[in-house]
Structures are given as C-alpha cells and as structure tokens.
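With this grant's support, we have settled on a layout for protein records. An illustrative entry appears below exactly as we store it:
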Amino acid sequence: MLEVHAVTQQGKDSGSLGIWSDEHISPLQKVVQAIHDQGSKAGLQLWHVGRSWLPSALLGDYSSGC
C-alpha cells in the first residue's frame, strides 16, 4: 500500500507525496512496477489535509467555513 498521496498541492502536508501532476506518473510507475515484479498488487491511499492547511486553522480559527 502506497500511503498518503495528496490529490492537490494545496492539500499536501510536508510528508506526503502527490498525484496532482503528470510529473508524478513516471516515478510512481517505477514503484508500481517493482511491486508487480515481486508478484504483488499496489494500492494507493488518497490524502487531503482539508482545512487544516489554512494558516488561520493552524491557530485554531475555523471561521472561514472551509
């Protein structure tokens, strides 16, 4: 299982990889191929940090309604 892949750049935290750009295809293809070469199947966990990425939310202000 390939964990925490952000679906948008805005929804990414500092430790997650991304799948929002075509630039992500080639590196992920290599990982998936290596998994397949071992006779396994790959899965991907989608991730979005939601409104917690907003600077105001980091300070505990969720009044923006995001």
